[in-house]
Design goal:
about 250 residues; alpha/beta; 8-stranded parallel beta sheet; 8 strands
Amino acid sequence: MKIMGILNCTPDSFFSGSRKQSEEEIRERVLEIVSQGGDMIDVGACSTRPGGSLATEQEEMERLRFALPIIRDAAPEMPLSLDTFRPKVARMCVREYGDMMINDVSEGEDDDMFPTVADLGVPYVLMSTKATLRDMMLGFAEKVQKLRDLGQKDIILDPGFGFGKSLEQNFAILKDLAFLRELELPIIVGVSRKSMIYKTLGVTPEDSLNGTTVVNTMAVMIGAVDILRVHDVKSACEVVKLTEKCLK
């Protein structure tokens, strides 16, 4: 089980605590993720929060050109993931700053994304916005085949909690998440402080750490998680340590 710590070099990500823009803030967040036991860092420079406005491609590139050298300097050996849906951004970052996972929340909607990641030869996170597990698995099977036909080897599946799903649909997918194991690919789960948690509890993202810990524990206990994508690395590491002790 790997823990992926979130670092958003944006001014408008939905959870205010994840926004890091100055050199000092970025460096402190990197060191925090490392010290709390994180295994990798997911770097985002374009918020995809519901109702928000997207940064332009140029803005996203400029933010990443500022943040990535700081991150690489602070933790040279830490594996990185790039949270982007833009092929040109993915290509720029890998070419200029070295290999990193591409974490794409668009389901590969840009026709150039699949060829780009296959050409770069880096791991790729394929997310689904499908609202039912059946449709999700059918969509994954089709797109995974397209990726493999292009020569893409490392594919990670993301059920896309919070994307294109109602609260009830999010929990229905969580309940049956183990069925995704039939596709025989690693699975990443990102529920951290999302609306399925804070709206259910009637709180804010800032007040949803406990709820996040509960849902992360459910996902790990179900046995269908290889990577947890989180804002709160220490809590997630405790989830993994305790659940693995229980499941031995």
